[in-house]
Amino acid sequence: MGNVFTVGPNEAMIISGGCCGSTSKKTVVGGWAWAWWLVTDVQRLSLEVMTLNPICENVETAQGVPLTVTGVAQVKIMKNPELLHTASEQFLGKKEHEIKSTVLQTLEGHLRAILGTLTVEEVYKDRDMFASLVREVAAPDVGRMGIEILSFTIKDVYDNVTYLASLGKAQTAAVKRDAEIGVAQANRDAGIREAECEKAAMDIKYSTDTKIENNSRAFKLQKAHFDSEVNTAKAEAQLAYELQAAKIQQKIRNEEIQIQVVERRKQIEIEEQEIKRKEKELTATIKLPAEAEAYKVQTLAEGNRTKMVESARADGEKIRLIGAAEARAVEAVGRAEAERMRMKASAYKQYGDAAILALVLESLPQIAAEVSAPLAKTDEIVLIGGADRTTNEVNKLVATLPPAVQALTGVDLSGALGKIPGATMVKN
Questions:
Q1: How far apart are CA 293 and CA 351, in angstroms?
Q2: Residue 159: which residues within 8 A CB-CB, separation 6 or more?
Q3: Sequence-distant (≥ 6) Cβ neighbours of residue 170 within 8 angstroms
Q4: Is 28 helix (H, G, I), strand (E, B) or coil?
Q5: pLDDT band (50, 70, 90) for residue 285
């Protein structure tokens, strides 16, 4: 059995596997396909446009000026069956950010390579040409991954050494210089026109003044020409000074960066050696003693456990044997006692009242001992009364014994004694 899968126009569905060990792959864009359960694998690949922002920081141009260039690129996976097959082999199963990262690294690499072949002026003034060059160079590489570059534009170009700012200053100074020259020329033309008008009006009357004004005009023109040349030379010298200072500052900065790079590398090497030393120290002082202590504790614990188990087994066997012996002893005693009681009962049954009387008589000394036991602890007994009263009290005490014996044993002592031949009962 299987299932029907559908896919929109913005995705590609790749179906691989199949019955009988098939290794063919089927690609569907904006359609449907049938896939068997368990033996086929269905995966999807997005065909939507992906926006990338390549950034190249402090990349040296052909002149050695470090520039930072940012751009915007729109890319997507191509729908051509062969290229889509290539893209599925390289990007299937990856997240969109992983695909973006791969293409972005390729674009940034070409951007750095091309940036190193151009001057600052070419990059800054003709951004479209620079972007077109990057797109033309990077297109074959990303095309082999099944990726198409839809557009690529340069977003921003700037530097940290004020090189671009220096170019702007030079252009501004040139414009100011041309403006001042234009103003001077306009003033000169106005003065000439004014002098000619005055000359025409006062040619006859002021011939001498005309000659003076002509000489004065010539002097002013010559002076203005000299001032213009002087200002031009000053401006060129100032620009040359600023340009040379910028180049020197750039070289100093490059050397400082190289020094920092070397220092950082050495510092990293020192830190790596320190890490290795720390690791060895921790292994020698903590890890190995800890492992030895753990092995010791484990060995002792196993020994104690074995000892306790064997001791418990021995104690259990001992208790079992003692219990069995005690049980056999109790059983033997019980059997002997039962046999004795049975024999007594048989004798009592055979001899009747005489046997019972004999039993009672045998018990009387024990009963008397138990009764007199408290009196044995008495140092002195004082009876108040005469001799006759003492005798009466003793007789009363002896008279209470038969009922007490009957209560304890169930035997009527008076009746049993009365049955003895020759015995008589004395009544009070």
A1: 85
A2: 65, 66, 67, 68, 120
A3: 239, 242, 243
A4: strand
A5: confident
**Under DSSP, is residue 295 helix (H, G, I), strand (E, B) or coil?**
helix
Q: Is 364 in a helix, a strand, or coil? A: helix
From CA 127, how far away is CA 152, in angstroms rounded?
11
Cα 106 from Cα 110, distance rounded (Å)? 6
> Three-state SS for 291?
helix
Task: Answer whether 194's CB lies under 8 Å from 216's CB.
Answer: no
The residue type at 354: A
E strands in 19-139: 25-29, 32-36, 40-46, 50-52, 55-60, 66-77
| Greatest alpha-carbon span in the chain | 216
How does DSSP assign 226-287, residue by residue?
HHHHHHHHHHHHHHHHHHHHHHHHHHHHHHHHHHHHHHHHHHHHHHHHHHHHHHHHHIIIII
With cut-offs at 50, 70 and 90, classify the pLDDT of residue 308.
Answer: confident
Cβ partners under 8 Å of residue 209, min gap 6: 202
**Of residues 272 and 348, more confidently modeled:** 272
Mapping DSSP to helix (H, G, I), strand (E, B) and coil, where does residue 12 land?
strand
Q: Which residue has the tokens 């036991």?
A: 373
Q: What is the pLDDT of residues 60-110, one digit of tens each?
A: 888 788 888 888 888 888 887 888 888 877 878 788 888 888 888 888 888
**What is this structure's pTM?**
0.38
Task: Tell me how crowded residue 145 is: count the other CB atoms within 10 A of its CB.
Answer: 20
CA distance 121 to 163: 10
Q: Are 44 and 15 in contact (CB under 8 A)?
A: no
In tens, the pLDDT along 332-342 reads: 887 887 787 77
Tokens 């014996």, located at residue: 405
Give the side-chain half-sphere CA count within 13 A for 91.
28
Report the phi/psi class of residue 148: left, alpha or beta, with left for phi > 0 and alpha for psi in -120 to 50. beta
Query: What is the overall mean pLDDT for the chain?
Result: 76
CB atoms within 10 A of CB 413: 18
Sign of CA dihedral 56, 58, 63, 69: positive
- Residue 345 is encoded by which pair of tokens? 């009962």
CA gyration radius for the chain?
Answer: 65
State the number of CA atoms in the 13 A half-sphere of 94 facing the CB: 14
Two tokens, residue 114: 């091309």
CA torsion 374-380-384-385 (nearest 10°) is 100
Phi-psi region of 36 (alpha: psi -120 to 50; beta: other; left: phi over 0): beta
